[in-house]
């Protein structure tokens, strides 16, 4: 059960990140050994685990710039560090930051992330494919080339993460950025899927306010929480 009084400290996060990087390296080595000895499915699983540990290290690094005294930030950090999907996503951040073509790199990374998130469980556990009444076994689910590529990807993620953490400093986050970070994912997605929010953000940009986090927090407070929707400037006006 989570301790409501627990708070991260910078020292704890640094220690956690270093331990995660070491474990990522250990898992990568073990994945390579398994692959070399013909155990592709298990190698794939450990390579994905290595990627998750790399992502955890980057999460811990980023967290050092946040308001660690805020209980909402602490709760969100704990959730992200315990979420397989979010750790995999985080593992790619250092690599993407140095990409010469960020748009194409992000598109390619998203596809890879989806495969990793979907392939993690089938590479380790048996299952039943109920629609076909067939037993699913790990060895049949992971191709040799997939395991090899996953190991290479884990190695690349780890190398970029190490370089990023060694050369950069955690970015100090604003109060609005922390509030947006702590916002429930479903809450933000629901808001971001409305035209009203984007018209509001456009209006903020036109007035010289470019802070996306501040706009999102303000819209949640002033509109969503009150059951209101921002109206585009020309909405309701007839043609002239």
What is shown here, in short?
This protein is mainly alpha-helical. It has helices at residues 10-36, 40-63, 71-81, 84-91, 93-97, 102-119, 138-141, 144-167, 175-182, 185-192, 195-206, 212-222; strands at 127-129, 134-136.
Global morphology:
globular
Overall structural domain count: 2
Write down the overall mean pLDDT: 90
- The name CATH uses for the topology of the largest domain is Four Helix Bundle (Hemerythrin (Met), subunit A)
Can you describe what's shown?
- This protein has 12 helices and 2 strands; from the N terminus they run ααααααββαααααα.
- By secondary structure, it is mainly alpha-helical.
- The protein has 2 domains: 10-167, Nucleotidyltransferases  domain 2 (Four Helix Bundle (Hemerythrin (Met), subunit A)), CATH 1.20.120.330; 175-226, no CATH class.
- Strands 1-2 form a two-stranded antiparallel ribbon.
- A hairpin with a 4-residue loop joins β1 and β2 (134-136).
- The N and C termini lie far apart (63 Å).
- The model has no long low-confidence stretch (mean pLDDT 90).
Q: What topology emerges from the helices and strands here?
A:
Layout: H1 10-36, H2 40-63, H3 71-81, H4 84-91, H5 93-97, H6 102-119, E1 127-129, E2 134-136, H7 138-141, H8 144-167, H9 175-182, H10 185-192, H11 195-206, H12 212-222
Helix pairs in contact: 1-2, 1-8, 2-4, 2-8, 3-9, 4-6, 9-12, 11-12
Main traits of this protein?
2 domains, 2 strands, Four Helix Bundle (Hemerythrin (Met), subunit A), 12 helices, 240 residues, mainly alpha, two-stranded antiparallel ribbon, globular
């Amino acid at each position: 059960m989570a301790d409501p009084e627990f708070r991260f400290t910078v020292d704890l996060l640094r220690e956690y990140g270093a331990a995660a990087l070491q474990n990522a390296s250990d898992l990568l080595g073990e994945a390579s050994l398994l692959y070399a000895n013909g155990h592709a499915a298990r190698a794939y699983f450990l390579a994905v685990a290595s990627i998750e540990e790399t992502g955890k290290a980057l999460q811990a690094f980023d967290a050092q710039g946040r308001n660690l005294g805020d209980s909402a930030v602490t709760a969100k950090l704990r959730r992200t560090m315990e979420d397989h999907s979010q750790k995999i996503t985080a593992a790619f951040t250092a690599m993407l930051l140095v990409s010469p073509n960020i748009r194409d790199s992000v598109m390619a990374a998203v596809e890879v992330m989806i495969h990793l998130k979907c392939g993690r469980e089938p590479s380790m556990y048996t299952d039943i494919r109920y629609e076909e009444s067939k037993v699913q076994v790990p060895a049949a689910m992971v191709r040799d080339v997939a395991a090899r590529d996953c190991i290479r990807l884990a190695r690349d993620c780890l190398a970029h993460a190490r370089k990023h953490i060694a050369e950069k400093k955690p970015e100090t986050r604003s109060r609005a950025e922390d509030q947006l970070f702590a916002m429930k994912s479903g809450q933000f997605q629901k808001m971001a899927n409305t035209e009203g929010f984007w018209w509001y953000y456009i209006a903020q940009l036109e007035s010289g306010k470019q802070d996306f986090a501040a706009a999102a927090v303000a819209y949640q407070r002033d509109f969503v929480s009150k059951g209101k929707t921002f109206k585009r400037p020309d909405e309701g006006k007839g043609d002239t």
